[in-house]
Amino acid sequence: MTENKKLKILYVASEVSPFAKTGGLADVAGSLPRSFAQMGHDIRVVMPRYKFISCRFETIHDFPVMISGRKEAAIIREHHIELDSEGRRTLPVYFVDNYQYFDRNNLYCYFDEVERFAFFCRAVLEMLPRIGFQPDIIHCNDWQTGPIPVLLKEQYSKNAFYRNTATLFTVHNLYYQGNYPKDCLRLLGLSDKYYHPERLEFFGDISFLKAGLVYSDVINTVSRTYATEIQTPEYGERMEGLLRKRSEDLYGIVNGIDYDEFDPARDSLLAQNYDSNSVELKRNNKYALQRAMKLPVGDRPLLGLVSRLVDQKGLDLLADIYDRLMADDIQVVVLGSGDNYYESFFKNMALRHPDKTAVHIGFNAPLAQQLYAGADMFLMPSRFEPCGLGQLISLRYGAIPIVRATGGLADTITNYDPGTHNGNGFVFRNYRSEELLTAVQAAIDVYRGSPELWIGLVRKAMTEDFSWSASALEYIRLYHIALIKRLHNRSNTV
Ligand code: ADP
Fold first, then answer.
1. Whole-number percent of the chain with pLDDT over 70
2. Whole-angstrom Cα distance, residue 258 to residue 90?
3. What does the pLDDT look like over 269-313, one tens digit per residue?
4. Which atom of ligand 1 is nearest to the CA of 255?
5. Domain 8-256+469-491, what architecture?
6. Quick one: which atom of ligand 1 is closest to the CA of 21?
7. Mean pLDDT score, 53-67
8. Rounded to whole angstroms, how far apart are CA atoms 28 and 12?
């Protein structure tokens, strides 16, 4: 099979931008499939239909799905994303609907999470023969889709329709594993035989993530460094042994971002559009952000943070140095939601330093874009970071990232050297608050001390290419590897 062959790909994810988003997975699922479509592949996307998704769609099928010996209705709605302004080329998106499981206000964190996504996975595999789409590849993402490879291999591949279908399982974050009690196997229609260390058993539970890792033809994660890190106990979240065992099938492909969606020259949400040739205009967005966030307007360094407020993001380091940061003439704007502890911490800081800290708790996509455009620097001191999109979006908008060298941050951001002008951000290595402080101070020193160097750095950051063009090709290569492995695995089992 040549790598030029146009593939049929089903891309499965629990969140896809712009329909539903809690984090980076949605950005990837909303943009990578578009790249495949532009390359001429027959790519379709499938996700749950949450209550708040209100785009135009057509109901194309409904059928029963067996869950614990009970029938649950799956209703399939089809929407077409237009890929050109004339609407001649479109990307089909299928929504799996079920009133009991998905007609709810939030995406996740419900008592019956395991049942919801067991249903979703089965519904996807039941759907394909019915709609007559026979994919070469089913591309699964994160634990919510982990059962698909095991169901495909152990049950559905007996059906001639699925004989040649290969699977790729992408881990966007190993921390979220979908671990549930053993008796949840029955939700998947799997016997106790699968409660086994070589199968789905995981420290006394069963794991949806492990199902994906064990049974998919090929695995990847979203940066090379993270692919290496997760084979160690420090980052492996107890899956390191399995990942080492599958290391020959484990790849790292760094995420891109959609350069049309994230484009400061055309972003209609900004007070002022700008590009790498007019970076001095960026400051109007800073003033607009300061006004919107009720901070004094001016040119002092403004640091931004757009993040889920969870331990992963290195916020304890920031908390540790916060008072020292506030002793300087700088401003910090925070947008995020997550753990109560961090939400309260930042709210308190805004109360304590009203002229220097502004906080918006919640998920707000337009404000995020305005923050990337208004900030001079962008904080991402993560404890671990599979890829990270915040630093890529901030580069694109000329907010210079200050990051810890881990996972995708290590693969995309290099430390700036004012002597050689090499580097695109400020990087520290060890998980220590002093190192974060040193990196922030280095950034502020360049900003204040050498405005020309700073402008040069911003311009350089804005002209770097972290679009999908290179990584989408790497995925296509991986799909071909998965197809070869599938063929090989099949001939070994017949
Ligand atoms: P993760 O997937 O771990 O949350 P990433 O950096 O990969 O982290 O992706 C986060 C994405 O979610 C980015 O597009 C970021 O701008 C966006 N985001 C995070 N928190 C918020 C928020 N509170 N409001 C709007 N966008 C947010």
1. 99
2. 17
3. 999 999 999 999 999 999 999 999 999 999 999 999 999 999 999
4. 7
5. 3-Layer(aba) Sandwich (3.40)
6. 12
7. 96
8. 11
Res 190: pLDDT:
97
Measured from the CB, is residue 176 less than 6 Å from ligand 1?
Answer: no
Q: Is the CB of 401 under 6 A from ligand 1?
A: no
27 C-beta closer than 6 A to ligand 1: yes
For a ligand 1 pocket test, name from 259, 293, 308 the mutation site with the most ligand atoms within 8 angstroms of its C-beta: 308
Contacts for 396 with CB less than 8 Å, ≥ 6 apart: 257, 259, 262, 263, 264, 372, 461, 462, 466
307 lines ligand 1 (CB under 6 A): yes
Q: How far is the CA of 312 from the centre of ligand 1 (A)?
A: 13
Q: Cα(449) to centroid of ligand 1, in Å?
A: 31
Cα–Cα distance, 238 to 220 (Å, whole number): 17
Verify whether ligand 1 is closer than 6 Å to residue 441 (CB atom): no
Ligand 1 atom closest to 372 (CA): 16
Assigned CATH class of 279-465? alpha beta
The pair of structure tokens assigned to 36 is: 């495949």
Query: How far is the CA of 166 from the CAs of 287, 289, 390, 484, in angstroms?
Result: 51, 47, 32, 9
Q: Is residue 494 over pLDDT 80?
A: no
**pLDDT of residue 478 exceeding 50:** yes
Query: With 50 as the cut, is the pLDDT of residue 98 above it?
Result: yes
* Crossing angle between the packed helical segments 340-352 and 315-326, to the nearest 10 degrees: 10
CA 68–ligand 1 middle distance (angstroms): 35
Residue 4 pLDDT exceeds 80: no
| Ligand 1 near 337 CB (within 6 A) | yes
pLDDT reading at 3 higher than 70: no
Percent of the chain with pLDDT over 90: 96
> What's the average model confidence in pLDDT over 457-483?
97
Q: Where in the chain is the domain with CATH 3.40.50.2000?
A: 8-256+469-491, 279-465
Per-residue model confidence (pLDDT) at position 490? 73
d(CA 224, CA 482): 18
Compute φ and ψ for 137, nearest 5 degrees. -130, 135
